[in-house]
């Protein structure tokens, strides 16, 4: 992201009188003329009906020059002739011309961008803004301003462009300045945190927790915009987080919670396709304790503030999208595997038996052959 | 007796064979056969990964885009809202034409990178191979749904890149554009998946 600033008009010591108001630059000499007539008569200047003036000098033609005025020099200036007749009156406002703006943009989805700014120079003067948004090869379009909140919005973006350009021009009575910012929306994309996050104990399972949430409401619900979720949890007091990732599925079951302990759980989200984008902020920290056979009156009661866990490393589990953590299914699978093992074992034993029977029969045949041979040998020819 | 033993061996062997389906069905996650659209989106994801790796490995920090490539597929008219209303046949045809155009650009880049002995050449070759495979897969899908094949635009490529710096800059520009294209194409395939099922 790059920022460039340039001045269109700057360095004016004062601006022309607009409806009785004259603008001057702080810390620079400011000249106040006593009307338009160039009469060489002695004049007296007053500030807010007082003859006490800030550091100044008066020229021969009655012009008042305020030398390096500060904010206290602002007010209503009046000049009078030597008979006390009012010749001219003007309100002086002091400040600075606009400076570079510090612009930052939020991209919560592929349709909208909001850019906010902070002035690098406090001008002390009212300003107007103009903001435009452009992409390569296209005409600029307005970035819709909210001057009070100092931000502007662009909707229905042509998101899949390498560079987008935002130009904001700030103008006040002393000048104007345009700040130009090049943006890569792909790296700025940062969803809002998942919503309605809830963690529930699962009846009958002291080591399990069910975590569920909803897509951020600002994220499109269409299947072309999958989200990757990152769930982290730890027993309260532990410094190590365990982690689970879930692709586009808004519920996971934690299987390795610490029985009888209060757990902290948080969820965050990132675009499921663009790995250059940013993770959302974490959801609010939730505290929940897994199911207990004999719950204590207050779950937090018997849990010390700090645990001394054996150094359990951060564990990561990836939940595939189609994984259904169903207990009955797993039990069925175990039974099936046991049955299968029994069948295999029986088969192997039967094979061994068959081989043994074959071998025995072969031995018997050999014995019989030998016997016959001996008999034949002993027979008289 | 021999006959009996032989037949019992065969019976046991058959029993073992009969266990095979049981064994396969006992795998923890039931495997769904990937559809052609799954293959297309996976292949696109793979290409995007290769592009990101190339961009990371040969990082080139530049604020100024040289705009050397005037004939890359136009992305300025593709918004997120469009992804909700994509039509199957025109989108497949357009993606095919776009990929063909990128293929020409990357083949050109590969040629000039070889000339300058750029270290990214092996990965570029792999990318072009993957791209061709995706184009073929997409073409098959187009034939299946009777999507017309668009006449590919003629690429306008830089005539010469005298310095290594120019090659790096061009490579960066092309990869940046292609990464965004892959992102959009992947989402388009996801979006079109239910529509293909409806057609078939």
TrEMBL record, chain A:
<keyword id="KW-0675">Receptor</keyword>
<keyword id="KW-0472">Membrane</keyword>
<feature type="domain" description="Fibronectin type-III">
    <location>
        <begin position="193"/>
        <end position="290"/>
    </location>
</feature>
<feature type="transmembrane region" description="Helical">
    <location>
        <begin position="331"/>
        <end position="357"/>
    </location>
</feature>
<keyword id="KW-0393">Immunoglobulin domain</keyword>
<keyword id="KW-0812">Transmembrane</keyword>
<dbReference type="InterPro" id="IPR036179">
    <property type="entry name" value="Ig-like_dom_sf"/>
</dbReference>
<dbReference type="InterPro" id="IPR053073">
    <property type="entry name" value="IL11/IL27_subunit_beta"/>
</dbReference>
<dbReference type="InterPro" id="IPR036116">
    <property type="entry name" value="FN3_sf"/>
</dbReference>
<keyword id="KW-1133">Transmembrane helix</keyword>
<dbReference type="InterPro" id="IPR013783">
    <property type="entry name" value="Ig-like_fold"/>
</dbReference>
<comment type="similarity">
    <text>Belongs to the type I cytokine receptor family. Type 3 subfamily.</text>
</comment>
<dbReference type="InterPro" id="IPR003961">
    <property type="entry name" value="FN3_dom"/>
</dbReference>
<protein>
    <submittedName>
        <fullName>Interleukin-11 receptor subunit alpha</fullName>
    </submittedName>
</protein>
From TrEMBL, chain B:
<dbReference type="GO" id="GO:0005125">
    <property type="term" value="F:cytokine activity"/>
</dbReference>
<dbReference type="GO" id="GO:0005737">
    <property type="term" value="C:cytoplasm"/>
</dbReference>
<protein>
    <submittedName>
        <fullName>Interleukin-11</fullName>
    </submittedName>
</protein>
<dbReference type="InterPro" id="IPR009079">
    <property type="entry name" value="4_helix_cytokine-like_core"/>
</dbReference>
<dbReference type="InterPro" id="IPR020427">
    <property type="entry name" value="IL-11A_fish"/>
</dbReference>
<dbReference type="GO" id="GO:0043410">
    <property type="term" value="P:positive regulation of MAPK cascade"/>
</dbReference>
<keyword id="KW-0732">Signal</keyword>
<dbReference type="GO" id="GO:0008284">
    <property type="term" value="P:positive regulation of cell population proliferation"/>
</dbReference>
<dbReference type="GO" id="GO:0008083">
    <property type="term" value="F:growth factor activity"/>
</dbReference>
<dbReference type="Pfam" id="PF07400">
    <property type="entry name" value="IL11"/>
</dbReference>
<feature type="signal peptide">
    <location>
        <begin position="1"/>
        <end position="26"/>
    </location>
</feature>
<dbReference type="InterPro" id="IPR020438">
    <property type="entry name" value="IL-11"/>
</dbReference>
<dbReference type="InterPro" id="IPR022356">
    <property type="entry name" value="IL-11_fish"/>
</dbReference>
């Amino acid at each position: 992201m790059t920022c460039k600033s340039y001045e269109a008009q700057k360095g004016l010591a004062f601006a022309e009188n607009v409806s009785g108001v004259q603008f001057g630059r702080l810390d620079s000499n400011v000249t106040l003329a006593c009307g338009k007539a160039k009469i060489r008569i002695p004049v007296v200047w007053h500030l807010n009906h007082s003859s006490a003036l800030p550091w100044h000098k008066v020229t021969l033609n009655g012009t008042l020059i305020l030398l390096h005025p500060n904010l206290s020099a602002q007010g209503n200036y009046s000049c009078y002739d030597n008979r006390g007749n009012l010749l001219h009156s003007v309100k002086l406002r002091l400040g600075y011309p606009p400076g570079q703006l510090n612009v930052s943009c939020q991209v919560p989805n592929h349709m909208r961008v909001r850019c906010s700014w902070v002035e690098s120079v406090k001008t002390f003067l009212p300003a107007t803004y103009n903001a435009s948004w452009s992409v390569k090869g296209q005409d600029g379009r307005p970035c819709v301003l909210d001057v009070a909140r100092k931000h502007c919005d662009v909707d229905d973006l042509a998101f899949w462009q390498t560079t987008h350009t935002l130009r904001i021009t700030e103008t006040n009575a002393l000048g104007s300045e345009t700040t130009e910012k090049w943006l890569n929306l792909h790296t700025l994309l940062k969803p809002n945190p998942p919503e309605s996050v809830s963690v529930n104990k699962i009846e009958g399972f002291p080591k399990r927790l069910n975590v569920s949430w909803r897509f951020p409401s600002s994220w499109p619900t269409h299947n072309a915009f999958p989200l990757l979720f990152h769930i982290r949890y730890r027993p309260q007091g532990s410094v190590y987080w365990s982690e689970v990732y879930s692709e586009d599925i808004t519920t996971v079951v934690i299987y390795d919670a610490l029985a009888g302990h209060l757990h902290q759980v948080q969820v965050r989200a990132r675009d499921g396709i663009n790995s250059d984008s940013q993770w959302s902020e974490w959801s609010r920290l939730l505290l929940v304790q897994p199911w207990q056979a004999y719950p204590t009156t207050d779950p937090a009661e018997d849990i010390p503030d700090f645990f001394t866990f054996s150094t359990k490393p951060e564990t990561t589990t990836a939940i595939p999208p189609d994984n259904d953590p169903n207990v009955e299914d797993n039990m069925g699978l175990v039974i099936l595997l046991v049955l299968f093992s029994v069948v295999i074992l029986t088969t192997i034993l039967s094979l061994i038996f068959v081989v043994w029977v074959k071998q025995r029969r072969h031995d018997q045949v050999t014995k019989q052959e030998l016997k016959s041979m001996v008999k034949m040998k002993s027979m008289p020819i | 007796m021999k006959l009996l033993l032989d037949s019992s061996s065969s019976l046991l062997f058959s029993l073992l064979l009969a266990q095979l389906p049981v064994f396969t069905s006992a795998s923890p996650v039931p495997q769904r056969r990937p559809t052609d659209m799954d293959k297309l989106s996976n292949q696109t994801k793979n290409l995007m990964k290769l592009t990101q790796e190339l961009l990371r490995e040969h990082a080139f920090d530049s604020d100024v885009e040289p705009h050397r490539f005037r004939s890359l597929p136009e992305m300025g008219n593709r918004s997120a809202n469009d992804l909700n209303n994509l039509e199957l046949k025109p989108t497949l045809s357009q993606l095919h034409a776009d990929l063909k155009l990128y293929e020409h650009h990357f083949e050109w880049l590969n040629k000039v990178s070889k000339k300058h002995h750029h270290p990214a050449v092996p990965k570029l070759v792999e990318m072009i191979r993957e791209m061709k495979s995706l184009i073929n897969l997409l073409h098959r899908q187009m034939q299946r749904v009777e999507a017309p094949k668009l006449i590919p635009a003629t690429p306008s490529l830089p005539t010469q890149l005298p310095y290594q710096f120019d090659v790096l800059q061009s490579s960066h520009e092309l990869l940046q554009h292609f990464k965004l294209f892959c992102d959009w194409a992947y989402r388009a395939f996801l979006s079109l998946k239910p529509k293909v099922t409806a057609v078939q």
